[in-house]
């Protein structure tokens, strides 16, 4: 069950147009009225309302999950390949229940190398992709198919596919003899955690997913009886900030929930020049610009939302649908995610099988840069000083979120130095989360892109490029998409990852 405490609840005007609009959206949401978000949005909304019934509809999956986990019970190392909604949900479930799930949601060869279990004989790989055409996921699937074959193992006995019926992945996988579980096609990717995408990997970790479904169903019933907690949350996020809100997992015992919410809210609302950008911080007290609305699940904050994981999932999906109405945007599309995909696709077509020369303008110890400057410090200083008055900085790090994790310190350091909102994302993971927001919402972002050399690489079977080339094209493609909007972007390239990261942190501290 969910409880909401809002520090400024006395400011909530129940007679306001906004409050009435949210209440109206809530009542229509109960009836699955797909016209809530206007006529332009209704075609897509019509086929995206299935999430509302997942708390009960997904019970139908339970027998199938029992049968599958029994069939594959000899496999105890679980790898999940998937991006955005297809992996952020299962990842927070695994962390919350203290289970080990290897989440491959990157194309960085260093990160990939950590996701390849030593003992393939006892490994099960779950491939989750709603569309069945996401390049990261299809490439990861091809990599594992090849690895199982090379190890003399039957890949169809070590891999399970979750996808929409009739997606390219569904058709190809069934033709090759894989076990395929179809998801509900009337549920969008970021609203899918209570369906097969979230529940199947969790069931393989030995988690009793019926508990998650029960609490989400209870929360749905409670919201229907009393909409106030959801209305209050949506109202606070719309009126308590014009753009950013801080969010932290601290003390929640649900590590990764903020990342899941970041994707849900940023990708759903960040379009048409409006939106709300969740700034995920480690700790409730981490630096955010003064007066930023702070949200938490347990720590002291302006808006505290308590409740177990299943309740949080359903609650935030409901709130996001209300935010769409309150902000007058379509919460179910992601028009600008496609843009970066197309840009990287066309680079891959021209590059062939190798990354083009760096063409850097200069090098400062282990960091190469691409604009005229004496060194990285002066370049960074000028760049950060030029962040728009109420603007933000997005750090986009195309490196290894495990081995290079200390790079995340850059968020706090730069936030302190600049007093601006600073968000951190791992590439290409963030392209399926805040990536939509950066290109579609308020155009006041500045972008620090960090790429790196890689001394390992993996072939992508069936493609004429490798993962090293793919991640370079993704970074470059997104850089082009951002630059084409006239938004400031600074790229730094680490020639040596470990050294480059400590040099960069030291430079940021010295500013
Ligand atoms: O599950 P897939 O089709 O591979 O998509 C993965 C992700 O891609 C995009 O970013 C969508 O906007 C997300 O909602 C989705 O979760």
UniProtKB/TrEMBL annotation:
It holds the Pfam family PGI. One of its GO terms (cellular component) is cytosol. It is an enzyme of class 5 (isomerase). GO terms for molecular function: carbohydrate derivative binding; glucose-6-phosphate isomerase activity; monosaccharide binding. It catalyses: alpha-D-glucose 6-phosphate = beta-D-fructose 6-phosphate. Pathway: Carbohydrate degradation; glycolysis; D-glyceraldehyde 3-phosphate and glycerone phosphate from D-glucose: step 2/4. This is Glucose-6-phosphate isomerase. It comes from Candidatus Planktophila limnetica.
